[in-house]
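ok so dumb question maybe but i'm new to this and my supervisor (M.) told me to 'just get the structure for ABC transporter permease subunit' and walked off. so i did the thing. is this what she meant?? sequence i used:
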Amino acid sequence: METADYLQLIGFGAGGWGGRLLAGAGLTLAVAVCGFILALVIGALGAWCKIRGNAMVRLLTDLYTTALRGVPDLLVIYLVYFGSSALLTDVGHFFAANGFISLPGFVAGTIAIGVVGGALCTEVLRGGFSVVPTGELEAAMAFGMSPATCFRRVLAPLLLRSAMPGLGNVWLSLLKDSSLLSATGIIELMRATQVAADSTHMPFDFYLTAAAIYVLMAIISGLLLRRAERHYSRGVRGTGTRATQALGGVKP
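this is what came out, is it supposed to look like this??
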């Protein structure tokens, strides 16, 4: 295919598929962001249960993280979508409603990848908490900080300093998992690409374009994540710089 024809095909003019691909990429990002936020909430609760919970709570949390990390992501999506639909349909029939009732595909997809990501975030946040010096928390409480202030100003920055690389991996994993959500009926990037490829009989061109869009999103995500890592590692870098200067510029 000529370059001009290819650009026209993926462009935004008449006969171009650029608008639909861009809308699919936007939906991919939206569901990944919502799923990641849900994963962080679940992960924080799971990490707290593993650290502070009793034996039964820790056992249940271990079962959750082990099961969700071992079950294929697509199977989790099917279970959430069809399981919630069956439950809502039964509840609707109980209240004399007719027909099939299901969650919107976006909501079901967000819950599915959020539950999967929550199992990963649980272990990442638990590992990050384990390296937080207890003396820092004790000093904060000794200064009279409330638990909320201590978490916001001491615990969260120290935890994120070590957990940020792992959380970045979780984000990229959820971004890729969003390509499976066409099973819930939403037209994300991969589904929009499939429709375009089937309609034009040019699968290689459109799937290559989709790959380029995913790579672009991954590159932008990597830049933002590295910026966040530098933000939460400011004290470490400063200490290392001062130590280097004290040794006459020789790195230890």
